[in-house]
Amino acid sequence: MTVHAQSADSAPPPAKAQPSHLRSDSSLTAGTYPLDDDVRTDWHVHDLHQVEYAFQGVVQVETDSARYLLPPQQAVWIPAGLVHRTTLKNVRTVSVFFDPVLINPGQQRARVLIVTPVLREMIVYAARWPITRTGADTAADTFFLALADVLTESLANEAPFHLPTSADPVIAEAMRFTDRHLQSVTLDLVCAHSAMSERTLRRRFFAATSLTWRQYLLRSRLLRAMSLLSQPDVTVLSVAVEVGFESPSAFARSFTAYTGQTPSAYRRQACSSGQP
């Protein structure tokens, strides 16, 4: 089963988001929740900050302003009160939830975090204290305070693994069309599909996304490639072709510049368990 970067879509009104309450004991300030099943959540909102770490597979998180792709062995930050939905396929993750009193994230937006070895080991260790537990635990409280401090520093270490969304229906459709035809799409085809001149599309696209259409296309191709490379039965060459690169060398250069890894190194990591 493939996890694709989902097509552009407008987020629902916040009134449609369902509140999600995980704590059975309101005195708990932090805890964890593992998932190892295929899940597509509805739009929802937590009263807790969430950090989701993927041991393997690729997680997708959508908000009203962006679509985030969480590669394996990295983490996504979702602040309390942010409306979002999550897609997990062939994925094993653990989430750490924090009461907002423990962390002040600053900007109220999701982020993909580059996980340091220390942060990774602390997230793995935290799994012994589920958010659904009851009763006070001094050791847990002390540990989660330390983890909150480490995580606060990590919030500045952000990876650009996301695509914008748009409330402009014409631009949202242009993004959907681009995402669905990565192998062969051109600006001329998008203009024809959107019934706009090239000049108008360029202007409206940048105004809506702060990206040029070509920047969006490249990022969409690379995010789709990251999803495809998480499968054990694909080759780097087949992925390069499927997402629309003209040559393996061009794909390797762009992928390495975007992720900091070669496609082959990323594929090995994506297909590993991510456990100690």
Describe the structure.
- The chain has 276 residues and is of the alpha+beta class.
- It folds into two domains: 146 residues, Jelly Rolls, CATH 2.60.120.10; 104 residues, Homeodomain-like (Arc Repressor Mutant, subunit A).
- 37% of the residues lie in helices and 21% in strands.
- It contains nine helices and eleven strands.
- Strands 2, 3, 5, 6, 7, 8, 9, 10 and 11 form a nine-stranded antiparallel sheet that branches. The protein has a two-stranded parallel ribbon with strand order 1-4.
- Strand 5 and strand 6 form a beta hairpin.
Q: How do you describe this structure in short?
A:
This protein is α+β, with helices and mostly antiparallel strands and 276 residues long.
**Mind summarizing the main beta sheet?**
9 strands, antiparallel
Which series of helices and strands comes N to C?
A: EEEEEEEEEHHEEHHHHHHH
Number of discrete domains: 2
Question: Roughly how many Å apart are the termini?
Answer: 26 Å
Report helical residue fraction: 25-40%
CATH architecture identity of the largest domain: Sandwich
Q: What's the level 1 CATH class of the largest domain?
A: Mainly Beta
What is the arithmetic mean of pLDDT?
89
Sequence stretches where pLDDT stays below 50 over 5 or more residues: 1-13
Please work out how many helical segments DSSP would assign: 9
Net shape: globular
Number of beta strands? 11
Strand proportion: 15-25%
Helix/strand class: alpha+beta
- Going by CATH, the homologous superfamily of the largest domain would be Jelly Rolls
CATH topology of the largest domain: Jelly Rolls
Rg, please? Answer: 19 Å
